[in-house]
Design brief:
Chain lengths: 125, 152
């Protein structure tokens, strides 16, 4: 279910105490992926943002949505491994390319990000 | 990879479904910061095909313009990231996890590695737990899937 919801190998999630968490702009849309699980996402761009079980003290926040995903403490486990995709274990060995290696300088100029920056903003866009 | 077509896929809730009738091209993962944010994840897993070979068979995706030349498609009802395409390209990529059979596509390259996160290097080494060992049997019914099945 995390594969389909995130359109990916699975989800990368970190638990945060719901009492110390607040939505500071807008609120997410919700899809109920099972009878006791809510998944929150942005209705305007689709970004998957969190999972939460009914009554749970925690939100499970999608790590990629954090302004600094590298600040998350080291991951500790993989769950749902019965559905692990066959290529997951070999990802690290795939040939690598930096963005500037496959985008021309002209393309890079036109590729200007319209994504919200990785910090709070007074007004947006 | 022509053996993989036709292929079908869609979002978690089933409001948007697609079929791919042209061969898969360039299966890859992308670490760029825009893919991280769009997928809420460490990276995106994508596979390309010709725009003419992708048919939306139920509903149509919402579109977010993540840069001046790129459109990203997603489901408005459940958020699943579905597609990404350059305006002037004849190709479009779909998210591998949205395919009904994601196990049939093997990424062959990593892009956007300037933004690759340190945690990525350890992901495959983390101890693994199967769902049935993680969730008590009496609770499994409550976790049953309400997502669209992996077929039309």
């Amino acid at each position: 279910m995390c594969q389909k919801a995130f359109g990916s190998f699975g989800a990368a999630l970190v638990c945060v105490d719901a009492r110390r968490f607040q939505w500071t702009r807008g609120t997410p849309a919700i899809f109920r992926s099972s009878p006791i699980v809510s998944r929150g996402f942005c209705a305007r761009c689709g970004t998957p943002m969190f999972m939460r079980e009914d009554g749970d003290d925690n939100y499970e926040i999608a790590i990629g949505t954090l302004d600094d995903p590298s600040a998350v403490p080291k991951m500790t486990e993989q769950t749902g491994v019965e559905s692990k995709l066959p290529w997951f274990d070999n990802m690290l060995t795939l040939p690598m390319q930096r963005t500037e290696a496959y985008r021309s300088s002209e393309e890079l100029a036109r590729l200007k990000s319209l994504q919200h920056p990785d910090h709070d903003t007074e007004h947006w866009p | 990879m022509t053996e993989n077509v036709p292929a079908t896929g869609g979002c978690q809730c089933g409001a948007v479904r697609y079929a791919i009738t042209t061969p898969f091209e360039n299966p890859h993962i992308c670490h760029c910061r825009m893919c991280q944010k769009a997928f809420g994840n460490y990276f995106a897993a994508l596979v390309g095909t010709r725009k003419t070979g992708l048919v939306w068979t139920r509903g149509t995706p919402g579109i977010f313009r993540s840069s001046c030349i790129v459109s990203r498609g997603f489901c408005r009802d459940c958020g699943t990231p579905l597609s990404i395409a350059d305006d002037d390209s004849e190709r479009i990529a779909v998210s591998i996890g949205s395919l009904d059979h994601p196990e049939t596509v093997m990424p062959a390259k990593q892009y956007g590695t300037e933004a690759r996160l340190p945690a990525f290097e350890r992901l495959h080494t983390l101890p693994g737990i199967r769902t049935e060992d993680d969730v008590p049997a009496e609770l499994m019914a409550k976790y049953r899937s309400l997502q669209h099945p992996d077929r039309d």
